[in-house]
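Field log, afternoon session.

UNIT: design team B
ACTIVITY: writing a sequence onto a fixed backbone
BACKBONE:
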């Protein structure tokens, strides 16, 4: 019995099947471990001497989603059972791989790349182009592995500066970097852009000349299970609805229950091509949060559910891509106050001078 070797790295959505051969009258004790958890422990019997372990992606997905990167080991022991029911070991073998959570098709099946090549050359995002940002915003990058990253900043006078990216998370299998633009400013200079480099990976950021009021600020789990942040710059509206249940008590009409639903509608603002392709990750995400950022730090986070979205794109020369979507608070209590933000006459998309 020889188990086929698994690749050194696999994405959770494309773990290959494992086929192996044992004696026709024997059985196989199959055990799979993901990290420290035993996720499969069964005795299997061959069909025409072949046992096939299929659809492993479905089995591994919840474990990979929780840990982002998990080590998988498949151990098989071939046993023969005598007439008295006693099992005897005939042969044993094992194979292992590192499984990276991923719900995107990056071309592994077509031979375009491998999970290992992708992880070595890309950050854990489907954004394949520059990202626009502004001073005061938070920006994070994630990559498989450990180690540091460098940042090369560019200023309006043509000069450059080199910084070390700040590691703010990870677990020994992956690393999270804080690459917020405020970390790369220089006295007397205007930051116009910067490039983050970690090994063979690089990501460009374009710094907008002025910071517009963003609403909402949405954090979401992307196709790799990592959290990214998007800042909407278009119109932001709220449309609360109330479902009232009434009854008459002592001859007077009373509301005995009022169920409130606050539906927010957001416009992303104008997107470049890379951002438009990337932002569909927000609409397919199962975990989204609306957040407030004050002085470069997160002040409050509320889980939300996107209830509707429109992400239409066109190849017309005069087309400006912008998406719209609606969301609601996930919690039952929809009466949410923000005590740290001053009251506004209009919504957050209006300039502060309207106050």
């Amino acid at each position: 019995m020889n188990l086929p070797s698994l690749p050194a790295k696999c994405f959770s959505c494309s773990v290959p099947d494992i086929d192996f051969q044992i004696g026709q009258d024997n059985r196989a004790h199959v055990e799979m471990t993901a990290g420290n958890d035993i996720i499969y422990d069964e005795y299997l019997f061959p069909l025409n001497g072949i046992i096939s372990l299929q659809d492993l992606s479905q089995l591994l997905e919840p474990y990979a989603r929780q840990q982002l990167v998990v080590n998988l080991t498949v151990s098989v022991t071939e046993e023969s059972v005598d007439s008295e029911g006693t099992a005897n070991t005939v042969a044993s073998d094992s194979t292992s791989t590192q499984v990276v959570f991923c719900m995107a098709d990056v071309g592994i099946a077509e031979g375009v790349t491998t999970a290992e090549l992708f992880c070595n050359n890309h950050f854990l995002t489907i954004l394949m182009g520059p990202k626009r940002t502004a001073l005061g915003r938070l920006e994070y990058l994630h990559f498989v592995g450990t180690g540091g990253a460098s940042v090369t900043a560019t200023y309006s006078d043509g000069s450059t500066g080199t910084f070390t990216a700040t590691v703010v998370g990870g677990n020994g299998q992956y690393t999270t970097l804080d690459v917020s633009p405020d970390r790369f400013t220089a006295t007397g200079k205007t930051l116009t852009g910067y490039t983050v480099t970690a090994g063979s990976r690089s990501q460009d950021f374009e710094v907008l000349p002025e910071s517009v009021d963003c609403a909402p600020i949405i954090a979401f789990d992307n196709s790799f299970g990592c959290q990214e942040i998007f800042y909407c710059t278009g119109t932001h509206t709220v449309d609360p609805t109330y479902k009232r249940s009434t009854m008459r008590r002592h001859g007077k009409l009373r509301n005995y229950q009022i169920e409130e639903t606050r539906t927010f509608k957001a416009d992303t603002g104008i997107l470049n091509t890379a951002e438009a392709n990337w932002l569909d990750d927000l609409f397919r995400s199962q975990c989204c949060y609306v957040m407030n950022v004050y002085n470069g730090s997160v002040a409050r986070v509320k889980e939300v559910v996107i209830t509707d979205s429109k992400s239409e794109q066109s190849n017309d020369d005069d087309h400006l891509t912008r998406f719209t979507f609606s969301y609601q608070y996930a919690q039952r209590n929809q009466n949410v106050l923000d005590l740290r933000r001053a009251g506004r006459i209009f919504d957050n998309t209006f300039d502060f001078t309207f106050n």
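LOG NOTE: Residues 343-355 have pLDDT under 50 and may be disordered.
NEXT ACTIVITY: expression trials, pending approval
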